[in-house]
Each structure stands twice: as C-alpha cells, then as structure tokens.
Write a structure and sequence with these properties.
With about 230 residues, the chain is an all-alpha fold. The chain contains eleven helices and no strands. Helix 5 packs across helix 6, helix 6 runs parallel beside helix 11 and helix 7 packs parallel to helix 10.
Length: about 230
C-alpha cells in the first residue's frame, strides 16, 4: 500500500471515512450551538463528553469514547479531519469499511488508555489519538507489503507529528502515543490475502477484543489514578 494509491481510487470507496468526518463535524456543531463558543471547548456537550479521569473513575466510562469526537475549536477539528480524510483515502479502499473501522476503534481506545496513564487529571478531547493510530497502522501495513514507509512519506509524517506532540505544550502525549501504538498493534492482527476465511474472522474478533480490552484497562487506570491521590 503506497502513499500514492489513494490518488487513483474514487472517493466513492471511502464511506466509513466520510461517516467519521461527518460525525466529528456534527458533534462539534452541536457543541458550539449549545455553548455559543466555536473556538473553545465548553458547554453541556463538552461537560458530559470530555475525557476526564475522575469522572471515568466514578463510572462515566462513555467518556473514553465520546472524548474522541469532541474538539476544542474549529482549527483543532479541521486539522484532525484533514489528516483523517487523507488516511481514509489511503486505507479504506484497501482494507474495506469494517476493517478500517476496527483499526480506528482500537486506535481510539489506545489513545484513551494513553490519556488515563499519562494525564488523567487533564480534560482531553480530540480525534488525534485515533488518527495517530491510523498512521501507525499504515506504517505496519506498508512494512508487511515490503514497502518503505520513508519513501511513501508516512514515516516522516509520523515523525513530524510526534515532534509536535512533545514540543508543543497542551498536546496530549499519552493520547497520541497510545493511539499510535494501538493502531500499529491492530494492523499486525489484520488478516492477509492468504488468511483462510475462518482465520480472518477470528482476527477481526481479535481486533475488536483489543479495543474492548484497552477501554477496560483505561477505566481501571482511571480508578487507580484516583485511588492514588
């Protein structure tokens, strides 16, 4: 899977990617309508959905998922959605909708776990953990296909984004690194063309199970962090 393949595929093949971009944009619009502040994460939607360790620890587990569909402003949303759209064009036509969504979901869960391990006391929003996971998955897929992630440009993109992650204050290091690692792991579980049908189904279940496991560990990590205070 090279970085140029998406250029030769029709956008009609990118359905899940469109759904995800549309969902993120819709949630941002609803949050903005309720808060009246388009460039600031606030209001009831943010308060009920942002990822925040103390609230996860008291049983609001859905924040592990909903936080990844909220954004702190229009620029934050646009940057994440631009990269998501680019990666969806590269990956979804090759993987198919279901596998693409499985990788995205596992990456999202890995990002949530990273936040709970590194910065559980900081309210966190954004799809970047899941997007980092897609980048990690694409690197793994290209390596499995004996292609160079450096030549395609995806390895450089990962490196630049990691540099920004560690250099700019306020960016979720745990969310980005956790998503990246989870996406790479999910990609290693994807079946190959030579995988029998039954084996492919088991691998799909394994990726879904990975996502559920990461969310469960994230919830436990939130509880452990609060108990340690």
């Amino acid at each position: 899977m090279t970085a140029s393949q998406g250029m030769f595929r029709g956008h009609d093949e990118v359905v899940a990617g469109k759904w995800l971009v549309g969902l993120n944009a819709s949630v941002w619009l609803v949050m903005t309508l309720f808060s009246g502040e388009p460039d600031r994460a606030s209001g009831p939607v943010f308060e009920r959905g942002a990822l925040f360790g103390p609230f996860v620890a008291r049983g609001e587990w859905w924040r592990l998922v909903t936080g990844a569909f909220l954004h702190s402003g229009l620029l934050h949303l646009a940057m994440n959605m631009l990269l998501l759209w680019f990666l969806a064009q590269e990956m979804e036509p090759v993987l198919g909708r279901m596998r693409f969504l499985l990788v995205y979901g596992a990456s999202l869960a890995g990002g949530a776990l990273g936040v709970m391990l590194v910065s559980p006391m900081s309210p966190t929003v954004g799809a970047s953990g899941a997007v980092f996971g897609l980048m990690g998955a694409l690197v793994v897929l290209q390596l499995r296909a004996h292609q160079s992630p450096w030549r395609s440009g995806i390895a450089g993109l990962v490196l630049v984004n990691l540099l920004f992650t560690f250099a700019i204050p306020g960016i979720s290091v745990g969310g980005h690194v956790g998503g990246l690692l989870a996406g790479a792991l999910a990609a290693t579980l994807l079946p190959t063309a030579a995988t029998p049908a039954r084996g492919a189904a088991l691998r799909h279940v394994g990726i879904a199970g990975l996502g559920v496991l990461l969310l469960a560990v994230a919830s436990a990590a939130a509880s452990a962090a609060m108990a340690a205070i």
